[in-house]
Amino acid sequence: MEAVKMMQTMTPDDTKPVNFTVKAPVYLQIGDTKADTAHSGVCVVDVNLPFGKPVNIEEVTFKNYYTAYVTVRLLRRNPEQEAPAKWCTALRDLPLMDNPHTERGSQDYYTIHRTQMQVEPDHVVCVRLILRQPSLAWLTFSLEDIKIFPHTEPDPEKEVSDWLSDLTLIDQHPDLEGLPDPQTVSSSIQQMWALTEVMQTNQTTASIGRFDVDGCYDISLLSLT
Amino acid sequence: MLTGIELSLTIAQIIQRLRGSHLHSQIERQAKVSELPDVKLESLKEDVRSFLKTSGWERKLQNAVYRELQLPPRHPPAPPEHLKEPLAYMRKAQASWEKRVLKSLNSMSTELGVPLAHMRPAAEQKELTNKWNEMGTDEPDLSRFRPVYAPKDFLEVLIGLRNPNHDSSEDISARSHWGLIQVPLNVRDIPHLREAYSELNLTSGQMGIDDHALIHPVVMEEDSAAAQQYSRQGCPTGLRADLWALILNATNQPQDVMHYEQLKAGVIQHNLLVDNLIYKDVKLTASNDDYYFVFEDFLYQVGSLLLFSQFTYHTRSCVSINGVTQAQVLMKCLLGTCYCVIPFHGFSMYVAPLCFLYNEPSKLYNVFREMYIRYFFRLHSISSHPSGILSLCLQFERLLQTHLPQLFYHLRQIGVQPLRLAFKWMVRAFSGYLSTDQLLLLWDRILGYDSLEVVAVLAAAVFAFRAENLMEVTSLASAEAVLADLSTLKVMPLIQVFLFATAM
One Gene Ontology cellular component annotation (chain A) (predicted)? Predict the structure, then answer.
């Protein structure tokens, strides 16, 4: 399965993550007695969403700490049916590190968007993250700062409220206080603009001519008309 | 390859970054010109677009987008220091290294009684302005100034770097590493390098060896991406300056020249302690070099300017009249920049080869600045980047251990770690060790592949080339003697043979 490492989040900035409790990660051990434990390289993190409030997930973000692969499983309870909640796999073995033995990706931030999941992450009650790190190079591995963002339906195009449409546009003349009428000013500005356009198209090579007399400027000689 | 959602997000980010840039206003201005031929109101959008295409503005936009794509994508939850360096323990190591260097600089300042930064008196400013182009003729007393650190000090720091989460207790012999670097970074071995550097195959012509192998010049098209691709097989000497400027998107427009003049004015006004270090470094290294001593004056100018540009960039917002505060701010800023510009012994050698390509100071400064902030700064800072000095050192050691195990073993037997011999080459990207024409061919590839990996490959290739002699040495001194003179080496055949003719 081709895994897509999304580097950008699509949730708008003001969306708050869901409050949830994360249980302590459980590192699976091989062997029964405490003395004979060998690290299996597998760890399970359960994220319990608030009781009685199933979430439709938009995206899950976290910071990696030396986990090589993560599998995401969801416990979904369909509100209409009375059936018990069912576990399903949303994402299997998403690679977080290029090479489990080397550093790349080991401390990066990741986002898993709902479009990357194989099932619709709606009415989710619990999220289980299964972490795998097969390499012996690392002392420990985990995920940090796990956040889950809920899916928000985009607002439908709002109609203009009724009270706004009740207003009629009254053409009020502003109190000018001696200033020229805006309409005449704008029409004369338009005329000037048209003039400049004409000038630009009819450029001549004749020199403009300077206001100096005998090689020097004299302010009283400048024409003011 | 980016897919749907990622693609549209990346596009949105690039648009945001380019909006409001100088290029944006230039294109807008061009589009508003009323003298556009064949522009009809009905098909306004298409006509303007095709006008921009034919007049070359689309190409400029493409170049700008290409440059933006080189930058890493931003991930909102990730704080900025994470984008610069994702591994926490490396950030810590870099911070403590910087602190050490700063302390050393501070104590030098106190010992010599020279402030870190102060305004020059007016007479001195005038004198410097007059002498700007001949600073090399000055012979001030710099005997008390020492370089802040030498590359071998930095090597010791790199060797001591450890990942706190790395389990080194179980030393499985299969993955035992004979070298000095103990950090498990991703580095590529020869099979991957062969794929990535396929243009260097023995069957493709290289500039400098097969000079009749001419490829269609791309300078006319002004296409950055094509220039970069072209440079992978080497640039012809006459086109190199333009091609490099194109790849780096280092323009020399009026605002660049103005910026240069502003910086120059700043350097004349302020006397920074680190300026003296640059001066001394140039005197010690470049001035003594047969190839580069002629460029002494340029090197002072460009070196000082780079440092001062860091100063102004950060102190613009902290206005302070008190000279002491300003100096403290300066030091904080110098070290707080992305690029940690503290000149060490050999620093001026980064600039020296560029003097062969550009004779106009502002263009030289621009190109050098681009090369420094894209590549050279990685050679003296601690990071996990694939072009960082740490990855290069590790790659060198791995290549040697995998493909020349007998040599590596022999050297270790006589108490010589190969990295100690090769480090000084890599940290200066071979500047000052190879002859200049060969060095420029090597730097063509650095630009062409946008990576410093070739430096590590070349270091291993040199060892492979001199392997027979090295197998016979019995001491560190004689090993150093074998590798002392690289000026007769031809880099491309060495790299090609090492990558494509090594038995796997």
Answer: nucleoplasm
Q: Are strands A57-65 and A69-76 parallel, antiparallel or unpaired?
A: unpaired
Domains and CATH numbers, chain B: 4-33+44-70 (no CATH), 88-147+250-379 (no CATH), 190-218+382-501 (1.10.472)
**Dist. CA A29–CA A43, nearest whole Å:** 9
Test B78 with A109 for CB contact under 8 angstroms. yes
For A107-130, letters b (16+ CB in 10 Å) and e give: bbbbbbbbebbeeebebbbbbbbb
CATH number for the domain running over A4-153: 2.60.120
Most confident region among B70-79, B274-283, B374-383 by mean pLDDT: B374-383
Predicted pLDDT at B500:
94
Q: What is the largest CA-CA distance in chain B?
A: 83
Q: Which of A113, A137, A145 sits opposite B184 (nearest CB)?
A: A137
Interface test with A, best of B165, B172, B383, B394 (most A CBs within 10 A): B165
User: Which chain A residues are closer than 8 Å to B74 by Cβ?
Assistant: 7-8
Tens digits of per-residue pLDDT, B416-455? 999 999 999 999 999 989 999 999 999 999 999 999 999 9
ipTM over the 0.85 cut-off = no
Judged by DSSP in three states, B270 sits in strand
Identify which of B24-33, B34-43, B103-112, B157-166 has the greatest average pLDDT: B157-166
C-alpha count within 13 angstroms, C-beta hemisphere, residue B220: 2
CA-closest candidate to residue B276, choices B143, B365, B369: B143
What sign results for the dihedral spanned by CA atoms B449, B453, B456, B461? negative
pLDDT at A172 over 60: no
- The span from the CA of B422 to the CA of B399, in Å, is 13
Render pLDDT for B195-241 as a digit per residue (tens, 0 to 9). 999 999 988 888 766 665 455 565 556 777 888 888 898 888 888 88
